[in-house]
Structure formats: structure tokens, C-alpha cells
Amino acid sequence: MSLFKEMTELDKLLHEPARLAIMTALANCESADFTFLQSLTGLSKGNLSSHLTKLDEAGMVFIIKSFVGKIPNTNISLSGSGEDAINAHWKRLDEMRKEAKIWKPETESTV
Amino acid sequence: MSLFKEMTELDKLLHEPARLAIMTALANCESADFTFLQSLTGLSKGNLSSHLTKLDEAGMVFIIKSFVGKIPNTNISLSGSGEDAINAHWKRLDEMRKEAKIWKPETESTV
DNA sequence: AAAAACAGGTTTGTAACGCAAACTTGTTCT
DNA sequence: AGAACAAGTTTGCGTTACAAACCTGTTTTT
Predict the structure, then answer these.
(1) Tens-digit pLDDT profile for residues A28-46
(2) What does the DSSP assignment read for B20-45?
(3) pTM of the model
(4) Is the CB of A97 inside 8 Å of chain B's CB atoms?
(5) Given an 8 Å threshold on Cβ–Cβ distance, is B41 in contact with A8?
């Protein structure tokens, strides 16, 4: 498939800025708390919560709710496929950037 | 600003896959026809049209409608700020990718 | 010469999305 | 007891991306 068609078909679940940040952060932690992720990304709680729900529904993350002492704690980590997906996403972006640099139109539809 | 906050704040106008493709293609042409862009990206006409309208409203592209003989022709090219913006966007993505690779959490919020 | 098909786009309709404000549930402080 | 706080979730709403339907003029078919 051509570079630009491929570009239009980038996975929006991962490409969306907030989720890209979440997934990229998680790729560098064994796991992270909700609160830690919130301060890291600066997202509002509501916003973070709904992004995490989406990622969870897509099987990208594991979400474990428990209690640390008496305080509820939500711990998030990447699933295996989530880790593969975010790594592949960044790799594809990088490849596209490089391909784009050398791409030239072939036809005379261009001026 | 921290890496991940910056990531959540990526410009969505440019980051959206279809527009990323359009802008990246245009960055490598002097200009391109509507039809050429359509075949390049595989977008539907309606979809391409509305993305171009958004880019135009944001001052990212110039859109010139004319006639080539009797056939109407819509020609699209990057504005100066559009060119700067798409180049900067790719550059930031690349920087983020590199920064992300070496980033490690500092706190013990992580396991 | 009408009608049908086509070229080149634009407008409309709609389901999904991203976001923050409001709400919930339980805890600690006074 | 009650006020304030912590940790999330749900709700509500304006915006978006997308394709189907539409429009305007041209060319081809009959």
C-alpha cells in the first residue's frame, strides 16, 4: 500500500494524543497508578478515566483495582498486545517520516 | 513542559491521520490537484473536501479553483505557515519518540 | 437531439469522540 | 457529627470524521 493511504489508516485508538501519551508512558513503566498517570499527562480525571476505559475495552491495558491499606488504588499496565501495538505505532510513524522525506510525485498532476 | 503533557497537546488539526497524509503529501509537491490528492490518499471526495476546508480555514493551505479548458480544477498548495507547521509537527514527533525511548519514571508510584 | 453516464466537487446527516463538570463512594480531619 | 478530601466514574454536550446524497456542468450514447 502507498505511503499516504497507509498514513490515513493509522490506528486512531493509539494515535490520539492523550492515548499516545498514556501508552508511551506505560511502555516505560512496569505499571503505573491512575494518579501517577494523571500528573504525568496533565489530563483531567474524567478524561483520563474514559481514555483508559477505551484502552481497556480494546485489550491494550490491564486495569487492576485494589486497596492499598484502606485507600483504593487503580493500577494500569500494558497488555502484551498493547506493548506490541504502541511500539509498532511509533515504528511506523518513524518509517513514514523517513519515507515521506524522500517521496516525490511521479505524475504530471502536479505543477 | 514534560514530555507526556506535550504529547497530549499535539496539534490535532495536523495530527489527524487524513490531514497528516494530505499535509505531508503537499509538503513534497509544489501543488496538487484535488483528484491527485484523492487518488494518493484514497480518501472519499466528501471526506477530502471537508479536510481541505478545515486546513484552508486554518490558513494551512491555499486552494485555487479554476478551469483547465472547460473542466473545473481545484489546486491545493501549502501556505508558508502550513509548511512550517507540518515540518515542525514531524520534527516534534521524532523528538518525542527519541525522548520517550530513554525516559524512566523517577518516583515510586510505579512498581 | 435527448438521454444517460461521467467528472469534479459540496452539502447533509449521523454515529462516535474528546472533554470537563457534576456526581459517587469511602476516608480523614476537627 | 460533619466538613473537607481522595480517587475515580458518569453524564452532558459541542465537535469531529466519515460517507451517502446531491449539485452543476460535460461528454458520450442512442
Answers:
(1) 999 999 999 999 999 999 9
(2) HHHHHHHTTSS-EEHHHHHHHH---H
(3) 0.92
(4) yes
(5) yes
